[in-house]
Amino acid sequence: MSAIDWKSYTPILIPNIKDYHKIDVYEKHGGYGGLKKILKDQTEFTPEKVTNTVKDSGLRGRGGAGFNTGLKWSFMPKPDGGPRYIAANGDESEPGTFKDRVIFEYNPHSFIEGAIIGAYAMSITTVYVYIRGEYRSWINMMQKAVDDAYEKGYLGKNILGSEFSVDMVVHSGAGAYICGEESSLMESLEGKRGYPRVKPPFPAQKGLWGRPTTINNIETFANVPHIINNGSEWYKGIGASTHAGPLLYGISGHVNRPGVYEYPSGMLITDLIHGAAQGVRGGKKVKAVIPGGSSTPPLRGDSLEGVRMDSDSLREAGSMLGTGGMCILDEDTDMVDFLWRVSHFYHHESCGQCTPCREGTGWLEKTLLKIKRGDGTVRDLDLLLDLCSQMEGRTICALADAAAWPVRYTVTRFREDFEARVKKTVYALA
Amino acid sequence: MAEIFIDNKRFEFEGPTKVLQFILDNGLELPFFCYHPSLSIPANCRKCFVEAGQPVFNRETNSFELDENGERVIRFFPKLMTACSLDATDGMVIKTHVTSELVRRGQKDTLELILINHPLDCPICDQAGECPLQIQTYKYGPEGSRFEHKKVHKPKRIQLGPRVVLDAERCINCTRCVRFTDEISKSKQLTIVQRGDNNYPVTAPGLEFDDPYSVNTVDICPVGALTSSDFRFKARVWEMSQTPSIDITNGKGCSIDIWTRDNLVMRITPRYNPHINDYWMPDAGREAYKIYNENRISRPEVNVDNQKIKSSWNNALLTTSEKIQSIQPNEILVVGSAYASVEDNFALAKFFGQLGQEKAVFAPNIIEGSGDDFLISDDLAPNTSGCEFLGIDQLDKEKLAAEITSDQYKLIVILHEDVVGRQIVTADQLASKFSIYLGTNKNQTSAVSNVVIPVTTAAEHFVSYVNVQGRIQRTIPAKETLYTNRRLDLEMSMGRLDHFGTQFDNWVTDKNKIDCIPAWEFLVRLAHELNIDFKFNSAREVFQEIVAGTDHFSDVSYERIDSELGVDLANKQKEELNLA
After folding, report:
1. Mean of pLDDT over chain A
2. What is the domain extent for residue B206?
3. What is the complex's ipTM, to 2 decimals?
4. Does B196 contact A at CB distance below 8 Å?
5. Is B192 touching A (CB cutoff 8 A)?
6. Is the peptide bond before A200 cis (omega within 30 degrees of 0)?
7. Across the interface, do A394 and B117 touch by the CB < 8 Å criterion?
8. What's the CATH code of the domain at B371?
9. Does residue B326 lie in a domain region?
10. Is B195 among the domain residues?
11. B284-298 residue pLDDT tens
12. Where is the domain boundary, B228, B244, B273?
């Protein structure tokens, strides 16, 4: 199923089935089949084979970085008898991203099944599900699903009569964007302040409580049962060749029908705006599209032709797939105001550990506020770009980059909007 | 041997090491704020940026790939790396600010960002003069700031605990203080609160930062965010002379620096000594600056008609010698002290030994359970082992009390020990005897002694002490007495004004000079009065005689103590020392 035939695509991550979040309904439609298949024939489905199947399927992490999931699993060292962990990342705090929420709400069991399969593949007995604190209702939904799975024997000791045991703990975050970064997520799970860790060591060597840990996105795990059920070749056939599988596109902004849509990867952005989301509000023109959460560089509305939602095509266009949380801005949008709001977010959410991010995000916001009020000068625009180079790649985690990229690319790609807002200034040459 | 190239110079290294530590060990320079050799590595200040590259290794030929000139092909990391967290690997190539424009730019950028919310109140900041941020800004920083907005305001003058004050605006969030309480003192009392540029370290609500090691956070704070409430606003760094010495408030004997101005000890800070205290010292030891300044005995005092009056040295000597001549030597009780130095105890025992009283006693001051397993020992006195090694009889408090009150003794000579204050004997019991007290500070014993001889403290002469580990260390004179002179005494350390002040800089006065002499010198003068052959010209001579005559101290010299940061008397092999 390629993205060209998107209109005839049947969703698998959020299927159109009533009460699919209930465990009985999920089971009736073949749920936990992949897990049963593996556990019934463990000599056939060895952990290595499961890992390789996931690796071959080309499933890439859905949290933003897009790393091959099976490859990540294979980085886990050999079991040494000590504890090992999975931390499932449901923090999704990137503005414009709300895809994991629909999984918690409509299809929690496919995530649980995927996480159990992941635990099996990496010989792990404890799975932490880290969900952002603001998702109180969704945390409750997830907890209910986990309780049901325990009751049915999919979690806990000796799952389905096999020797394999897994525990799953639903953990609520406390409202920090930074805790979506994998190493600060681990710090937060350990009960510490959410400061990202210095890498190396990587989580697979030293993760939670110094033990090997794999961190995957919720949506990533939700894909796994389908790969086990239908094989890696089938999965590879969905969507773009280098970024296989279905994607949850979270479309927000000035469109007629915002929402989360499941389609194959590699969808044309124009198809998503004018097809899935049924066009821009009021029939206006698109000014900008942020393809994958607020930290990804925005694309100009006049450069969207032929750009597809997969990592390669977006890189060529000058942006990134990120989380697939798209934000569509129409021609009336004030880009200065928009960028100030984005910068305000990153200023507010910088954890304050590294100097460039702690101080730089604040400086960016203050400068943008000055421009927004009409007090800026052209020099401030250059200062913004200079500050971006002072922040990019200079910090422990990627928050500084996430804060700098939208500034850099909004200012360069929509410079006329900014120049229109700054004061006309004349400087003496000497 | 693995090799590493730093700014085109080849170095060899062994074992795992971080690049920054290696650079510092080799005497090269790289600016940093958050790194501390004794603490974990957070890499958060982003100051120690370097360009780092590794040679490309060809697995097929099992050798490094070479370019057309026969040089190794180096693959550089795409980003600037923090040297503090970067492991040195064989063949690694490092470019610091010396050779790389990119690194220079990176370091400057970081400084500019650190400074945008820093108050820049150096003229009223206690850290000025010894502030890494100030030094590095002058050296590596941008000339001005492009920041034209309001700085972030944070709490100022927070009394974190009894001894530490926080100015959150000055804080650069290096987290050294938090890591110190987490990893070294283990009280875990500090944490960073808030987020982003509102971050600052503080205790949990309602709790005090009363860690017994709390002031160490002031020392390691790379800016003036944490200041000592005691030392705050008392002196500028450049006005003080810094003298290496040791802590005498405790049996551990931490290595310290004594900072003096106009012959007053202004503060005490720890000095690096890997054998004893690393970079740290207990807060109690810092309070000791008071014993050097306050409540000192200056000029001898003699009881006349039950009235204590100031006396001349001659009169004190005459009174003492007359008393000694009027009784038999075995009627003298000689009380040494674990609070006094090896030299003083030795001189005392030797003097009275020559006089005919071979016996000298002391009572150690050890309170079981009063210490911890870090830098506070159960032993409250600095020289208990030293007295033992000198062969001075060790008595417990009751036995010493029995000796003092016994009718056998008509004269009690007490060196330093506050026998009344320690409740060994009552004031009345001591007052009923004729006693001579050689002490530094006024106390309950000096109040009832018949003759009080002021002697020098550890800050005024050289003396050595043996700590609870059996390690001998020594002090160096830090402040002048009435009879010593900083400019003439080459053993004394100098400050900026000693070096550069002119005779018109009237910053040194005589008012803080104490009229006292070392205990051994008093005994030498006394020997002259009594016609005993007992002669020393300096503490060095006393120490040389100790070394020559006592097995425990053989092969030890002041020079060895200085160069090896003390000598372990149980194992006098020369120790390899790596001074960071």
Report:
1. 94
2. 147-228
3. 0.91
4. yes
5. yes
6. yes
7. no
8. 3.40.50.740
9. yes
10. yes
11. 999 999 999 999 999
12. B228
**pLDDT for A280 beyond 60:** yes
Q: Measure the CA angle with vertex B148, ends B143 and B149; round to 5°.
A: 135
Shortest Cα distance, chain B CAs vs residue A178, angstroms: 10
B152 and B109 in a single domain? The answer is no
Burial environment of residue B373 by CB neighbours within 10 A (0 to 12, 13 to 18, 19 or more): exposed
B569 in a structural domain: no
Q: Is the pLDDT of residue B328 over 50?
A: yes
A183/chain B closest Cα distance in angstroms: 13
In whole angstroms, what is the distance from residue B196 CA to residue A351 CA?
5
Residues B306, B209 share a domain: no
Burial A401-412 (b: 16+ CB within 10 A, else e): bbbbbbbbbbbe
Question: Are B40 and B179 contacting, i.e. CB atoms less than 8 angstroms apart?
Answer: yes
For residue B580, name the pLDDT band (cuts at 50, 70, 90): very low
Both tokens assigned to A80: 């040494």
Do the chains contact at B113 and A355, CB–CB below 8 Å?
yes
Closest Cα in chain A to B117: A359
In a shared domain, residues B98 and B221: no
CATH number, position B219:
3.30.70.20
Domains in chain B: how many in total?
A: 3
Which chain B residues are within 8 Å of A393, Cβ to Cβ? 78-80
Q: Is the pLDDT of residue A215 over 90?
A: yes
Residues B414 and B531 in one domain: yes
Say yes or no: B179 and B34 in one domain.
no
**Contact at CB, A349 and B196, closer than 8 angstroms:** yes
Pairing of strands A325-330, B360-362: unpaired
Inter-chain touch B117–A395, beta carbons under 8 Å: no
The two tokens of residue A294 are 């607020």
Q: Please state the rounded mean pLDDT for residues B402-414.
A: 93
Interface of B with A in 99-128 (CB under 8 A): 106, 109-110, 112-114, 116-117
The pLDDT tens digits for B91-138 are 999 999 999 999 999 999 999 999 999 998 999 999 999 999 999 999
The reply to whether residue A362 touches residue B109, judged by beta carbons under 8 angstroms, is no
Rounded distance, CA B516 to CA B344, Å?
A: 14
Rounded distance between C-alpha atoms, residue A325 and residue A319, angstroms = 13
Contacts of A347 in chain B (CB under 8 A): 196-197
Which residue of B148, B183, B191 is the best one to mutate when testing the A interface, meaning the one whose CB has the most A CBs within 10 A? B148
Q: Which of B184, B203, B228 is the last residue of a domain?
A: B228
